[in-house]
Design a protein that fits this description.
heterodimer, A: about 425 residues, mainly alpha, Hydroxylamine Oxidoreductase, Chain A, domain 2, B: about 375 residues, mainly beta, Methylamine Dehydrogenase, Chain H, 5-stranded antiparallel beta sheet, 29 strands, about 45% strand
């Protein structure tokens, strides 16, 4: 008799099956591709629609049911943790005081903190190239790849989530291809890639073999430089290299693999030196006021204003011809050289990469000569705004270490003398 | 016009015998003229020739001191008012259905220009001929707080208006509630005599931070900003000195300080919760004392309130419910550099604000130029 209330309670705590949890949805969505894919996935019979999307149909209709990495992380905690430590998890969503979840909010509020179509607050948007895009271009051309930070579906697909999808190197190709970082093409046409096409895994390596060993979601293991391009400190770099060589050793002699990666390191440094040479030529032209148009006479850089930008925040619109050449050299040709070298691809390293770097450097030198011959060099003069430009040049040269503190002070004194005359 | 001045000074002289009624001590041939009218000193502005006084109560009032003629120019209380540098025009801004309306009157009280604009005004300044400037606050309230902008509206001699955004911020609902319809009073400003910098007060109260109000020096060339001091939300102010190189600050601590803008050195410090400063004459009124540089010129009665006229040559004083106009103390116009020297100083200041020369290089060059 005393068991009756317990039995009664058990009626309510008996687990409800996934089928039951999804039944309400299936009344309308039975034939939807989403449902068909879910039934064919590893989640079939384990998850219902509401488990990931919630049960608030109005919110779902309003597009508020995006399945974030946190939703997947409820069951796949380890994978989420690894993902967040990796380059794939780098912050695109640094929201501060965001009101997106508040009831009855005015959507116009978003524009106080965000560029249209951007999830980062304006003040911390890092990518100048994103800022200058239209909303539509930003959505397709930027977010489709960079949304990976908060979307497992970027690689796994939204409903099918089959393991075979994410074990195929093709899944990486969507983003890791193209002129700016052709990792996929470099791998595909390397010996690793051609063997993979003949033999498949596990006899030949795909992307996941080296970058996601044992299924780790930290794809940054074994890489010696972060996305900024500045190499890690020696200790960290050695630790990373050791991790990679441990993998190489599965198929190669360790010494052979180490030598190959050291060669790639050398190619990278040699290429960076050529990039630096090109950068110095353009800076010198800027110092002399010979760029056409000059940074002060064109649309301002959204983060740095009317200054010459030749680093990772460089834009490809509203710049001079010689800067366009530099953009191709740095962003395309140099990147192809590195990626080719680290993916053991001779053609990408040499012809698409190194040869292009050097040909573009020739073009930059030729264009620089043309501009020098055409332009009037900046001289120290009282004429406005020449004296101001002269001081700017002196300051830039001092900042770059080309002018000692004493020389800088003396040359400034000369300019001030002219102003006071 | 000359005759009018003579008549006016004769009138003042005839009242000199009444100086005993206002116990004031100081340097110069002091003359005191009691006014027949009484009004709130805080909202009053005296023209450069001391002839006209404008103030706000339920109306915008204009009072001719010489002939005691009193007119109501507008049937509403102005947010701000000021005289043109030559005293021929009076500008006033009144709130109008959540927005504002600028009126400019001549000395007879006839409107010569008017224009509506959005936002509310914290201060009006007419620093030099042809540039009338208003500090305007605009805001919009949302669920998570209030978004506000502070900007300068400037009308040139043809009444063409231009805008300069000073700041944009979001404040918490609690701060917005606390300030209610006085939000515009948080923006005070002062344009430098060289027209290249503006000292202004900026409200800072985003979520997760305590509400603060800063005194900020803003370069109109580079938009670079330097934080000078922290002020109470609705009290205290800062003014640039006549040479544009130092700042006078009342930060609600019972002291008025003069700080070097670039070295932050304390140049002088006087007791007082508020002050009045005239950039044309360099006169500083704080507590009950009037100073020129560090020299004491006048000592006013302790229970009095006072305000400097435009140009500094007159003091409007309230003492024992009676208003007086005091003149005769040394209030000479400061000879700031002009012509080519002024242009060179402007260039040097621009180079300094752009960080192209250091402060010591600026100072040495300036001293050489003014030798």
């Amino acid at each position: 008799m005393r068991l009756l209330p317990i039995l009664f309670l058990l009626l309510f705590v008996t687990p409800i099956s996934a089928e039951e949890r999804g039944r309400d949805c299936l009344a309308c969505h039975q034939k939807d591709s989403a449902n068909r894919q879910l039934l064919a996935s590893d989640h079939a019979g384990k998850l219902g629609c509401a488990d990931c999307h919630g049960a608030d149909h109005v919110a779902i209709d309003q597009g508020k049911s995006h399945v974030s990495v946190d939703v997947c992380g409820r069951c796949h905690a380890q994978q989420l943790e690894e993902h967040r430590k990796s380059r794939h998890g780098m912050g695109l969503h640094a929201g501060w005081g965001c009101t997106r979840n508040e009831k009855g909010r005015d959507k116009q509020e978003c524009t106080f903190c965000h560029q249209q179509g951007d999830s980062q607050p304006i003040s911390t948007v890092q990518c100048a190239r994103f800022i200058t895009q239209t909303s539509e271009m930003g959505q397709i051309g930027c977010n489709r790849c960079h949304m990976i930070e908060n979307s497992c579906g970027s690689c796994h697909g939204n409903h099918l989530t089959a393991a075979k999808i994410v074990q195929d190197p093709m899944v990486c190709a969507k983003c890791h291809m193209g002129p700016d970082h052709p990792q996929w093409e470099a791998w595909q046409t390397s010996q690793h890639g051609t063997l993979f096409q003949s033999l498949g895994m596990p006899d030949a390596p795909g992307c996941q073999t080296c970058h996601m060993p044992q299924g780790t979601h930290n794809v940054s293991g074994g890489l010696t430089a972060p996305p900024s391009g500045k190499p890690y400190a020696q200790l960290k770099a050695e630790e990373q290299r050791t991790k990679m060589l441990d993998l190489c050793q599965n198929c190669h002699a360790r010494s052979f693999a180490a030598r190959d990666l050291l060669n790639a390191d050398a190619v990278r440094l040699q290429t960076l030196s050529l990039v630096d040479e090109a950068r110095r030529i353009i800076r010198d032209l800027d110092d002399r006021g010979l760029l056409d148009p000059q940074p002060r006479n064109r649309v301002e850089h959204p983060q740095r204003g009317p200054e010459l930008v030749l680093d990772g925040a460089m834009l490809y619109e509203d710049i001079s011809h010689i800067e366009s050449l530099f953009f191709r050299l740095n962003k395309y040709a140099a990147a192809k050289t590195f990626k080719g070298a680290y993916h053991q691809n001779p053609d990408y390293t040499h012809w698409y990469g190194n040869a292009e770097v050097k040909l573009l450097l020739n073009d930059i030198k030729g264009e620089a000569n043309r501009l020098r011959e055409r332009g009037v060099p900046v001289t120290i003069s009282q004429e406005e705004p020449q004296y101001e430009m002269a001081l700017e040049v002196l300051q830039r040269r001092h900042t770059r270490g080309e002018l000692s503190a004493e020389d800088y002070a003396e040359k400034k004194r000369q300019v001030l003398e002219l102003i006071l005359q | 016009m000359k005759k009018l001045f003579i008549l006016f000074f004769l009138l003042l002289s005839s009242c000199a015998s009444q100086i005993e009624t206002l116990p004031v001590e100081g340097i110069g041939q002091l003359t005191v003229h009691p006014l027949a009218k009484s009004f709130n000193l805080d909202s009053a502005e005296v023209s450069i020739d001391g002839r006209l006084v404008a103030w706000g109560d339920n109306y915008l009032n204009l009072y001719d001191v010489a002939n005691q003629d009193h007119k109501h120019l507008l049937m509403t209380h102005p947010d701000a008012l000021c005289w043109s540098p030559d005293g021929t025009l009076l500008a006033a801004v009144v709130p109008a259905e959540g927005e504002s309306h600028l009126y400019v009157f001549d000395q007879n009280g006839s409107a010569v220009f008017d224009a509506p604009f959005s936002g509310r005004v914290g201060r009006l300044q007419w620093p030099y001929a042809g540039i009338l400037t208003a500090g305007v606050v605009k805001h919009k309230t949302y669920t998570f707080g209030t978004h506000m902008t502070g900007q300068l509206l400037q009308w040139d001699k043809h009444w063409q208006v231009s805008k300069t955004l000073l700041y944009e911020t979001t404040i918490t609902p609690a701060t917005a509630f606390l300030l209610a319809d006085r939000l515009h009073e948080t923006l005070d400003f002062d344009i430098s005599p060289f027209g290249d910098e503006v000292l202004y007060t900026r409200l800072f109260a985003p979520p997760a931070f305590a509400a603060e109000r800063y005194l900020v020096l803003h370069s109109l060339y580079t938009t670079d900003e330097t934080r000078i001091a922290s002020l109470p939300l609705l009290a205290g102010k800062g003014r640039l000195a006549y040479d544009g190189e130092s700042v006078l600050v009342a930060a609600g601590l019972g002291v008025v300080s003069q700080l070097d803008l670039w070295s932050s050195d304390l140049l002088q410090s006087r007791p007082g919760t508020q002050f009045d400063y005239d950039v044309v004459s360099g006169l500083l009124l704080t507590g009950h004392q009037l100073f020129k540089d560090k020299q004491l010129l006048l000592e006013l009665p302790l229970q009095s309130q006072a305000k400097l006229s435009s140009g500094g040559q007159f003091l409007l004083i309230r003492w024992q419910k009676q208003l007086y106009l005091l003149a005769g103390y040394p209030a000479h116009k400061i000879n700031n550099p002009s012509g080519p020297k002024m242009l060179i100083i402007q260039k040097l200041r621009r180079l300094r604000s752009r960080g192209l020369i250091e402060q010591n290089e600026y100072q040495q060059s300036r001293e050489r130029l003014l030798q």
